[in-house]
Amino acid sequence: MAAEDIVEGSEVNGQVSIRFATAVADPENPTVAEWDDATPITYQLTTSGYTHTVTAERLTTGRFSLANALQKEGKITDEISITYVYENDLSDPISTTLDKGVTGFILERWGIENGLAGAAGQTVDVIPVEAGIGAKLAPGDSDPELTRTKNLNVIGEVHRDVKLVAA
């Protein structure tokens, strides 16, 4: 029996973009213009500063005299937190666009060079959020920059793996 093939992965360095859009008219069909007009925040985030976790509630049920429980997937919960470097006068993009209570959309694009403009057919995730309060983080011995962390509360339906459409 031959060993299975090793699947070649996709490079991650420079191949992810995170943006904040104040509005997306149709989250199931975001436009190239909405992508390009959104505020890029990827490179303001620290190396471990973008956490988007997805958990699915597991529901169990049973059947008369069946010895094992049956499972189904229930509600899905998305949680997003960011840790970012900021300018002391708070003139940086995250401080000026994601103040507490601000609503909009996080747009995620994976596997495409960060600097490339949006194009019809590119796959993105569209996540409606409300910004939480930012908390200053105490610097560690090797931290050269001021950082803050904040939660981005998911406030609506998340649209995963949707395609950008021409305007």
Written overview of the protein:
The chain has one domain (16-163): Elongation Factor Tu (Ef-tu), domain 3 (Beta Barrel). The model has no long low-confidence stretch (mean pLDDT 94). With 167 residues, the protein is mainly beta. It contains two helices and nine strands. The longest helix is centred in the N-terminal third of the chain and has 6 residues, at 32-37. The protein is globular and about 65 Å long. The termini are far apart. Strands 1, 2, 3, 4, 5, 6, 7, 8 and 9 form a nine-stranded antiparallel beta sheet that branches.
Count of individual domains: 1
Span between N and C termini?
52 Å
CATH architecture: Beta Barrel
What's the level 1 CATH class? Mainly Beta
Q: Taking Cα atoms only, what radius of gyration do you get, to the nearest Å?
A: 19 Å
The proportion of residues in beta strands is 35-45%
Instruction: Label the overall shape.
Output: globular
- The count of DSSP E runs of length 2 or more, i.e. the number of strands, is 9
The major pleated sheet works out as: 9 strands, antiparallel
Rounded mean pLDDT score: 94
> What is the fold-level CATH name, i.e. the topology?
Elongation Factor Tu (Ef-tu), domain 3
Amount of helix: under 10%
Give the structural class: mainly beta
**H/E element order:** EHEEEHEEEEE
Number of helices: 2
Tell me which oligomeric state these chains represent. single chain
Q: Give the low-confidence spans.
A: none
